[in-house]
TrEMBL record:
This is Carbohydrate ABC transporter membrane protein 2 (CUT1 family). Belongs to the binding-protein-dependent transport system permease family. PROSITE patterns: ABC_TM1. It comes from the Bacteria. Keywords: Cell membrane, Membrane, Transmembrane, Transmembrane helix, Transport. It is a multi-pass membrane protein. It holds the Pfam family BPD_transp_1. PANTHER family: ABC TRANSPORTER PERMEASE PROTEIN MG189-RELATED-RELATED (PTHR43744), POLYGALACTURONAN_RHAMNOGALACTURONAN TRANSPORT SYSTEM PERMEASE PROTEIN YTCP (PTHR43744:SF9). Gene3D superfamilies: MetI-like (1.10.3720.10). It comes from Kribbella jejuensis. The chain crosses the membrane at residues 21-43, 84-108, 120-140, 152-172, 193-218, 268-287. GO terms for cellular component: plasma membrane.
Length: 302
């Protein structure tokens, strides 16, 4: 009988398998380093003392002289960045609340088969997934409604996403019909069905679309750039684009420091960048456990 020669073993594992695992580990380590390295640099530069940032030429990987919060105190001292942070908070909170309410109510209405205009309205929502309005028509609509140079111009036009509506509708369609029928027999109206059955059973999908809307509003800058002429109404992302991406310097008057010394511009820019990132990083871990459940259930059912 012919026997195959034994394979080389290292620690009880065949050599080809060990080589494959080592290559995967090296590849993943390189990818993680490429992602993490710039982020560490941003954090370190924003926390490094101004003298060290100036000496390093604008970028510090690891601060060697301790942590200094001068850059954060400067941008949060009541100037342009502080105002933009409050504006972004208002836009995100109000916009997300309105968007979630509109999306859930529309998704519930579209999930109730047999209601008047259900199919026509669903067709309109589906068509809007394929055809988006251009920049000029959108601007003209906002202008005709008198929303120019108003925060509502950033909130209202994007308050309903057709994709999110379809996800919510699919979730509502997949709810057990027996529960809804039993509630109807007990005399529940459509509004009570939505309030006491639909919403409590859809916490996962609501959390997911709330995250989508919240991140979208927090990161929005293009609509603000189009519709807001008053710089005091700029959200944080538009300030980030102006003073970080475009390289416009922030002076003492812009920061609300008056005659006080202004930290290096690189420290200020990195601090603004960190403030724009941290809120999303803080919220995402609490929503992550609902993410797969909400999206997959809403997309597959119905």
């Amino acid at each position: 009988m012919k026997t195959n020669p034994p394979r080389t073993m290292v620690g009880g594992m065949p050599m080809p398998g060990l080589l494959e695992r080592v290559l995967k580990a090296v590849f993943l380590t390189v990818i993680c380093a490429v992602v993490v390295f710039p982020f560490i640099g941003v954090i370190s530069t924003s926390l490094a003392p101004p003298a060290e940032v100036t000496k390093a030429g604008g970028f510090v990987l690891f601060p060697t002289k301790g942590i200094d919060l001068t850059a954060y105190r400067s941008i949060l001292s009541g100037g342009t960045v502080t105002q933009a942070l409050l504006v972004s908070g208002f836009i995100t909170a109000v916009g997300t609340t309105i968007a979630v309410l509109l999306t859930c109510t529309l998704g519930w209405a579209l999930s109730r088969r047999g209601t008047v205009g259900n199919r026509a309205l669903l067709l309109i929502v589906l068509i809007s997934l394929l055809f988006n309005p251009g920049m000029i028509p959108s601007y003209l609509v906002v202008q005709q409604f008198g929303l120019l140079n108003s925060l509502w111009a950033v909130i209202v036009p994007v308050s309903v996403s057709a994709f999110n509506v379809i996800v919510v509708r699919s979730f509502f369609v997949g709810l057990p019909a027996e529960i809804i029928d039993a509630a109807r027999i007990d005399g529940a109206s459509e509004w009570k069905l939505f309030r006491h059955i639909g919403l409590p059973l859809s916490k996962a999908v609501i959390a997911v679309i709330g995250l989508f809307y919240g991140v979208g509003y927090w990161n929005s800058f293009f609509n603000a750039m189009l519709y807001l002429n008053d710089s005091s109404k700029w959200p944080l992302q538009l300030v980030l684009r102006t003073y970080v991406v475009n390289g416009v310097e922030l002076g003492g008057q812009d920061l609300g420091l008056g005659s006080e010394a202004v930290p290096p511009q690189t420290s200020i820019q990195m601090a603004i960048l960190m403030i724009s990132i941290v809120p999303v990083l803080c919220v995402y871990p609490f929503i992550q456990r609902h993410f797969a459940k909400g999206v997959l259930t809403g997309a597959v059912k119905g």
